[in-house]
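Forwarding these from the shared drive since the link keeps breaking.
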Amino acid sequence: MARSTVLIVSPTHTRSLEVDARLLAWLRPALIGLSVATVLLTGALAVVGQKYLSEGATSQQQIGHLQQELGHLRQLTSAEINAKLASLKKSEQVIVELQTYLQARGVHVRPVSIEPPAGQPNPAAGGPALPIARSVPFTGSFAHDAHSLLQAIQAVPLGLPHAGPLSSSFGARSNPFTGRGSEHHGGLDFKGTSGEPVQVTASGKVSFAGWRGGYGKVVEVSHAHGHATLYGHLSRIDVEAGQTLAAGDVVGLLGSTGRSTGPHLHYEVLSRGNRLDPQQFLALNAAPIKPWME
């Protein structure tokens, strides 16, 4: 067996070591391979480290960009919320004003009906006898023409002109003097005591104030968007033609002038000359409006 002598020299002593030559021949390429692998591993670690550092910098940039966008989004959302809150506050104010107005108009109150059965005389009814005609669809568009909900509501005849009970409804009825036959009634009759105040149901301008046939002393008020209201059988008129009125103003006193069987208010609602059933305007939860044309 071939052997080789290896001298190990240190500062204090020298030592010899005999090693099998074949073992050295086998270890040499292993050591060379290990050195090469170490170099390659070191290079790979350097490349991976560089890539990691580069990706880390990119990620930091992306995170910074996202944080900046989030900040802008928060600012935008805050501005939008502030705008919504301001709008809501304004809407709440309008709603409060609207509720106050509707409460004052009494639209949540329905009058008690004391209309007698068909075939019996009515002691608190009247108005001119009109020919019966067929109904036509109601095509009013006041809501679309109005710039403000509150202004539109104030211009529409809502609520009660008088707090008395309903003694005669809109449409076909018996003759109030005899209780027989049939005639068309173009409005509502509210029973009351002579001298009680009668209120206009919407803002508008007096278009007529005076005597008109079967209506007796009557006041007619024109409102926005083609609406009008009529108050008949008054004992006294407290307004004059051309006068501007606000909803709730007194137009006169209840009476029994004209074609009347007793003290009551005859109340009509018209849209561009077409008579509508006023009862549909007395409450917000009423049924669809019924028109009538002469």
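-- next protein --
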Amino acid sequence: MQVIDHVDQLNEAEELLRRDPQESLRLAKVFLDTNTELALCLRARRIESRAHLHMGSYADGEAIGQASIVLAREAGERYEEAMAHNEVGVFRFVAQDYEGALGHYAAAEQLLQVVGSEADVCRIYLNLGNVYYRKDDVVNSLLFYERTLEISERTGDDLMLAKVLTNLTGFYAEYLQDQKTATEYARRGIALFERLNDKVGLAKAYMHLGIHAKDDRDYAEALKYFSKSLTLRAKFSEPDEFLSTMCELAQCYLLMGDEEQCRGVLLDAENTEAFKNNTGLGGHYLNGIWAHLYLHRGEHAKAIELWLTMLAYLRENGTSFLESEVIRNLAEAFATVERFEEATRYYQLLNNQVDEDARIGIERRLLVMNRRVEIAQLETQAEIERVRNVELAGAVERLEQLHEENSEYLAFMAHELKSPLNTIRAITQLFMEDKSLASDDRHALIVQVRSISTRMFDLINRVLDRAKGRQDEDGSTIDIAVIWKYLLDQLKLRAREKEISLTTSIMSEPALARIPESRLISIIENLVSNSIKFSEPHTTVTVTVRKLYTDGNAASPRLLLSVKDEGQGLSTEDMDRLFRPYQRLSASPTQGEDSTGLGLHIVRRDVERSGGRIWCESVAGQGSTFYVELPLIAAGKAV
């Protein structure tokens, strides 16, 4: 009964998030003060984080999200780890760190594909659409928005449907200049938000309708929608959106010729916490309207100074969608004060910008049209394939799959043979160069060469067995800690060859898993060898192996292997291609070592075949950490 009450408490806090975030935050804090159950506490922290987002206290919200990622991972709470990644992704998005946002959303999606629902994954799709929207990637933005739209309509998720309709409003209005479709989406979204009593969504949707009415010069209608949006934000505000709504309201009054009302709105905006705490675009929105007011009053120098400051900010931060308007204002202001040289220069810039905007607009429309054509073609092709002879199609598919498996297997074996050969080469090089090696050391190295050579013969025999139709799987139980100790000397030798320090933190107790020994060796060797290969001399590669328990359940132990380097790191594009076969990434081996692009693909395949998961966390220029999670056999369980 106690747990049910706790869940009810959290449900109430979550329901209030988009209606009264301050009260939602209070309830979450009360819950955390009186409860210790980890999974529920992580959920409460997630509610805290999102409440801070809606209230505009971004630093506090992101700090909670970042701490939750670590806490959830340490505790094996994979669902909450995913949702914490999503929260941090939202804060990175608000901070215009779009690469960081994509990284967190990718981590969340990978986890949710295993432990989440379709609705959870749908939430990530919506956020990915938002990032690509800001990155001017029209096709990917529309792809994720439409995927979200399809899932939310099919599953009856009205809140998600309302959110994506509001986002599509902006997409069609700003990207495709299709105001009619944008307005239709906005009205559908408003109807849903009103039914749900969702104040955050209604505030955004009313703002979109206000902008549309203002563009149509229906200022009275625009004032009504902007005022509604601001009223809904009385208790909370996301600073940029709140300030931009205030600016739209002020500009509306100015367009109606009411200078005093315009000035009053601007002064009210500057007295808000949203303005005082804002360091982003919101403050520049406000300056832009002040400049219009100054121009209206004939104070041209003040207007020009503010617009120049705004233009510099837009260019510095890559916010191109407002540049044309600011450049037009500057050109007209310079012309008014007869500074014709500057006016000419800005008119030329405006002409170039307008041409560029028109070109981009046409390209966007073409991309969307092509996307529609591709979807229609795919649907037609799918229907053709569906009516084909099922048995014939099945036979062709089986042959193609067999051919693909054999080709991949041969490539895999060739790759697997390279690693032991490199170790043997390193040992022989040591024999040749270090004449002072003690007899015991030489003997130990010879034993290693023999052991490695035996494993190579085993690999070759597996190829031959496969050719005869035999499989290489076995269900024996092995101790991962023992395998690691077997590999440690070989891996340290490779690190030593490149003057890299290999540090380890390995659990001492047994860690039993049902996995072919050769597969486990391949996973460990590939990951550690890769880190050594892409690291500079005199850096450190750190390997940690420890046990986790899924959702705190001792009956579901897992192993977490992490391999961290101080190398070149990976770009967002690298992360997208990371585990695909034959992919060349931006990072290169530091001493010209060979790289086929197969190793990580093999590791991912082997990890997933063993019931585990693999992922990477990396920032370009700051190294990478690869994580592998594998299921273990619980203590005392029959093997």
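The longest strand covers residues 540-549. Confidence is low (pLDDT under 50) at residues 466-472.

- D.
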